[in-house]
């Protein structure tokens, strides 16, 4: 038990918790943009998978990690475009289109993996970058300021997303379109264009989430690498009440439980591994049950916009 | 009047012709969605430097080239149909059940456990009881997200996905622990699978030397039963009313959350039954990968069948064939069967897009009809105006 309670163990758990929160943050904040504009994109997991594969494939092929990240973002963007065409222009049921997009991404990433890789390939991913001075603070230093660039990016995204949503015209437009598309339309906002932009931005971030997974966390790709992380990210949006700060809190709570569970496995605490792996999913259901009914989301969520309809 | 002229142009030959148009549209839209997906698949194959014609020919050969291949397409159609029936019920109530995988596992686990516990029971008793228990276990796995949706407005898509992961981990745990085949432990292979179930519980073979079993007949009979349930009973009517217009259903005094929870529970039951049938009909034991992704491909099947139990019958055979063909394609031209998973996703995307196109089309048509009526008799109620239109034409 001493091992669990020591300062070194605490730092270890918190450091990996911050790292594990990264893909959730990118994906969930991206999803929040889409949902605030009125579009639920349930294909996040599929986009993350394609992003994760493209990132490592390009990074291994060109030797440039950043090129891998860029391609993952572009891949996410393209899948977001597909989702937008189907759910915004063709006004298809968003839940089912999202599942279709997920299946497409899962299948495509497996197909590309089998054809182009064949076996699991590893990569030397993004290394931790120690921030001068701040990185030397005890406990906080190693936890917060000795991480990789993609981790910093995810945490900087939180205030950035808040600023965009609360302080810019663009953010106001997104929320207006999600709350009352007819009113926004009558004020001259192009509802569908805002939704396209929001969904594509969210999907690009989901692609980046995948890249952060394969290039900065596990440093490899295998079939179904995400194992449902994208769905958990969607759940975090509800949990965080569509607010970046709330999403940050949820992502950290989640990743801490995950890190704790991994740590206990390493220490050989007598919990069957499969039972411990169930924890995050159980936690998601509990969290959804406790939060969803109390929070009011964007009024036009899941509703395609058609001029002349109330 | 221009609106009247347009209305007449939409319905050139009276009501019966319109019905045929509707049927044609309902068949043509999903079929063209599939063709489009296959076309994109061909592009993918070209990018993988495989001749698409050769690959697709291998798929066709896989199904129609041998008795085994053909019966195998029906073997795979059976769980697809069962899962698809549940999806029909759930989606008709506007509940999106992504939990098929977990519900299949729940049913398969229950069937395996019970059969091994009561292995001395005679087959005539053991088989129906295990099938029923498989149904109930799947129903329970659908009931949980159903209640969470009804009581706490938990998004069922997310909760069912989580239930899938929980069921999967739980099965993996059992297959590596309490349920592991003692033979595997003795021989030191430690395969994550259960011991073989006693022969008396196995479903009978329809064609000797193949895997085709009586579960197919059960699934088809149930498809008819679900059709009767949804279209000829009060409960079925309410389920459809809830999905068609939840607000109107609520206004009519229907307990919307109750029927949504019920439809999710029933959907779970059918998926659980699929799991039970896979165990005692095909594998004769529980093993990793027992679901074969049927929980997801069952959704595609039901969507393709127009969310109609009877339409799901041919759809399940079509997708069963696609899966069998994919295996053959993998062997013949070395294209991973993941290609078919990709195509299934695309088919969902295209079918759901065309669904909306067809709905918009019929709504547009109805609007035209009402418009032309109201121009002539603005004071009449919609029902009256519909009949008056007929007279005018």
Write structural notes for this entry.
The complex is a heterodimer of chains A (310) and B (393). Chain A is mainly alpha-helical. Chain A has a single domain, classed as ABC transporter involved in vitamin B12 uptake, BtuC, CATH 1.10.3470. Helix content of chain A is 72%, strand content 3%. In chain A, the strands form 2 sheets. In chain A, strands 1-4 form a two-stranded antiparallel ribbon. A two-stranded antiparallel ribbon of chain A has the order 2-3. The mean pLDDT of chain A is 88. With 393 residues, chain B is mostly helical. Chain B contains 16 helices and no strands. The N terminus and C terminus of chain B are likely disordered. At the A-B interface, helix 5, helix 11 and helix 13 of A face helix 7, helix 13 and helix 15 of B.
Regions with little confidence, pLDDT below 50 for 5+ residues of chain A:
none
User: What value does the average pLDDT of chain A take?
Assistant: 88
Say what the CATH topology of chain A is: ABC transporter involved in vitamin B12 uptake, BtuC
Largest sheet of chain B: none
Compressed to H and E, one letter per element, the order of chain A equals HHHHHEEHEHHHHEHHH
Radius of gyration of chain B: 24 Å
Tally the structural domains of chain A.
1
Poorly predicted sequence stretches spanning 5 or more consecutive residues of chain B: 1-14, 377-393
For this entry, what is the oligomeric state of its chains? heterodimer
**N-to-C SSE series of chain B?**
HHHHHHHHHHHHHHHH
What's the end-to-end separation of chain A, in Å?
61 Å
**Alpha-beta classification of chain B:** mainly alpha
Kindly provide the name of the CATH class of chain A. Answer: Mainly Alpha
């Amino acid at each position: 038990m001493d091992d669990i309670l020591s300062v070194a163990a605490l730092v270890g758990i918190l450091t990996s918790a911050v790292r594990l929160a990264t893909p959730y943050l990118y994906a969930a904040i991206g999803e929040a943009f889409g949902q605030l504009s009125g579009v639920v994109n349930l294909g996040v997991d599929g986009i993350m998978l394609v992003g994760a594969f493209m990132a490592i494939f390009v990074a291994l092929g060109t030797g440039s990690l950043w090129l891998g990240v860029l391609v993952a973002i572009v891949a996410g963007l393209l899948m977001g475009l597909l989702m937008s065409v189907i759910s915004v222009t063709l006004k298809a049921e968003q839940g089912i289109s999202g599942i279709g997009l997920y299946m497409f991404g899962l299948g495509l990433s497996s197909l590309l993996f089998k054809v182009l890789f064949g076996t699991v390939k590893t990569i030397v991913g993004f290394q931790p970058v120690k921030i001068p001075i701040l990185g030397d603070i005890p406990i906080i230093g190693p936890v917060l300021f000795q991480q990789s660039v993609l981790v910093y990016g995810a945490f900087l995204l939180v205030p950035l997303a808040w600023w965009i949503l609360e302080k810019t015209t663009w953010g106001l437009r997104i929320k207006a379109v999600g709350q009352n598309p007819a009113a926004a339309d009558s004020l001259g906002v192009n509802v569908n264009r805002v939704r396209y932009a929001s969904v594509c931005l969210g999907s690009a971030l989901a692609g980046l989430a995948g890249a952060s997974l394969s290039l900065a966390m596990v440093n490899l790709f295998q079939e179904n690498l995400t194992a449902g992380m994208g769905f958990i990210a969607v759940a975090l949006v509800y949990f965080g009440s569509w607010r970046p700060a709330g999403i940050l809190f949820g992502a950290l709570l989640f990743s801490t439980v995950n890190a704790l569970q991994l740590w206990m496995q390493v220490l050989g605490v007598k919990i069957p591994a499969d039972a411990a792996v169930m924890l995050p999913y159980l936690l998601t259901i509990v969290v959804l049950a406790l939060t969803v009914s109390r929070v009011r989301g964007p009024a036009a969520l899941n509703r395609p916009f058609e001029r002349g309809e109330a | 009047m221009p609106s009247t002229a347009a209305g007449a142009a939409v319905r050139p030959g009276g009501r019966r012709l319109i019905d045929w148009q509707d049927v044609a549209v309902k068949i043509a839209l999903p079929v063209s969605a599939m063709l489009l997906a296959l076309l994109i698949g061909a592009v993918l194959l070209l990018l993988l430097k495989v001749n698409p014609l050769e690959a697709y020919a291998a798929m066709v050969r896989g199904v129609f080239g041998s008795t085994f291949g053909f019966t195998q397409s029906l073997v795979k159609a059976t769980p697809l149909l069962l899962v698809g029936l549940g999806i029909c019920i759930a989606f008709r109530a506007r509940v999106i059940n992504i939990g098929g995988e977990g519900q299949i596992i729940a049913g398969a686990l229950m069937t395996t456990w019970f059969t091994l516990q009561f292995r001395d029971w005679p087959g005539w008793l053991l088989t129906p009881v295990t099938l029923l228990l498989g149904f109930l276990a799947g129903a329970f796995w659908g009931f949980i997200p159903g209640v969470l949706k009804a009581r706490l407005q938990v998004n069922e898509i997310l909760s069912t996905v989580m239930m899938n992961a929980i069921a999967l981990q739980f099965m993996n745990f059992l297959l590596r622990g309490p349920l592991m085949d003692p033979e595997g432990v003795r021989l030191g292979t430690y395969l994550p699978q259960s011991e073989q179930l006693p022969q008396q519980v196995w479903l009978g073979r329809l064609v000797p030397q193949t895997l085709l079993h009586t579960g197919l007949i059960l699934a088809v009979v149930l498809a008819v039963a679900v059709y009767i349930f949804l279209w000829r009973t009060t409960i079925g009517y309410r389920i459809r009313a809830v999905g068609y217009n939840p607000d109107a259903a609520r206004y009519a005094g229907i307990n919307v959350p109750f029927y949504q929870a019920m439809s999710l529970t029933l959907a779970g039951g059918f998926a659980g039954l699929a799991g039970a049938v896979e165990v005692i009909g095909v594998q004769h034991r529980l093993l990793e990968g027992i679901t074969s992704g049927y929980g997801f491909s069952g959704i595609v099947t039901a969507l393709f069948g127009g969310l109609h139990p009877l339409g799901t019958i041919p759809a399940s055979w079509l997708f069963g064939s696609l899966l069998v063909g994919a295996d053959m394609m993998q062997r013949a031209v070395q294209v991973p069967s993941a290609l078919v998973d990709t195509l299934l996703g695309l088919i969902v995307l295209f079918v759901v897009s065309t669904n909306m196109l067809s709905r918009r089309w019929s709504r547009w048509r109805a609007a035209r009809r009402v418009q032309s009526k109201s121009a002539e008799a603005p004071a009449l109620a919609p029902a009256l105006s519909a009949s008056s239109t007929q007279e005018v034409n």
